[in-house]
From TrEMBL:
Highest taxon of the lineage: Bacteria
Record family assignment: Belongs to the ComF/GntX family.
Name the record gives this protein: ComF family protein
CDD domains per record: PRTases_typeI
């Protein structure tokens, strides 16, 4: 994919949506932004130079399955998976963790458009890797109590933004039956068993085709794989249904 090199200046007087500083009061310069679509690029142009420069894009994924920038032992060990491949926009470093927390836990909805614009990179990379035309896009759901507490599902909102920009059909296809603790704190075996029985399809007769499944962070792939398994099981023609993962960050 060709990288656009742009010298961007935020509108005069407007603060950076991430750090709050006036973008024109920080150092400016050329930053490689690997996104083709105009709207995500426009949104990212509101970031100050420091924030734009700090984005750890996964330009050259090493793992062809999950898109990780390093060798992935999880994908090597997993003998069967229900999704085809996945792609992630950025590495989940400390700064990206802080950015997600601004939106996910502190309710800073102004960050939503920035994260969605970053996710657009993963979508364009996925299209480049597969040459696929996707029939629908959906998202990993939250448990009812978590949704009630937070008020929104961040993965759903990111997926809806992407659907709007690229002309995709968004459909809620999954239900989350219970909340689970962070997967990064568990053993691999516990991650897999903990996901079983955690999701259900909204219908027993979902349509088939190529489906994009969106989530915010890929940690072990267990959530993505279980959701893909449920979607394929509920599709009209299991054999012809393909699930592709699309995630904002890869830990």
């Amino acid at each position: 994919m060709r990288l656009h090199i742009s010298t961007w200046f935020a509108p005069s007087g407007l603060p950076c949506p991430i750090c709050g500083r006036n973008a024109q009061q920080t150092d400016s310069g050329a930053v490689a932004i690997p996104i083709q679509h105009g709207e995500p690029r426009r949104i990212l142009s509101a970031l100050c130079f420091s924030c734009r420069r700090s984005i750890p894009w996964i330009i050259h994924p090493v793992c062809r399955i999950c898109g990780r920038a390093e060798r992935c032992e999880d994908c090597i060990r997993r003998q069967h998976r229900s999704y085809s491949i996945s792609r992630c926009a950025v590495r989940y470093d400390n700064q990206m963790r802080d950015w997600l927390a601004l939106y996910k836990y502190r309710g800073n909805e102004g960050v939503e458009s920035v994260l969605a614009a970053m996710l657009a990179f993963a979508y364009e990379r996925l299209c480049l890797s597969t040459s696929a035309s996707f029939d629908a896009i959906t998202s990993v759901p939250l448990a009812p109590e978590r949704l009630l507490d937070r008020g929104y599902n961040q993965a759903e909102r990111l997926a809806q933004r992407l659907a709007e920009w690229y002309g995709l059909n968004y459909h809620p296809m999954l239900l989350r039956l219970r909340h689970t603790e962070k997967q990064s704190l568990k053993t691999r075996r516990s991650r897999v068993t903990d996901m079983r029985g955690n999701f259900a399809a909204v219908s027993s007769d979902l349509f088939s085709g190529k489906i994009l499944l969106v989530d915010d962070v890929y940690t072990t792939g267990s959530t993505l794989d279980e959701c893909a398994r449920i979607l394929k099981k509920a599709s009209q023609t299991n054999d012809s249904t393909e699930i592709y993962g699309l995630l904002w960050a890869r830990s």
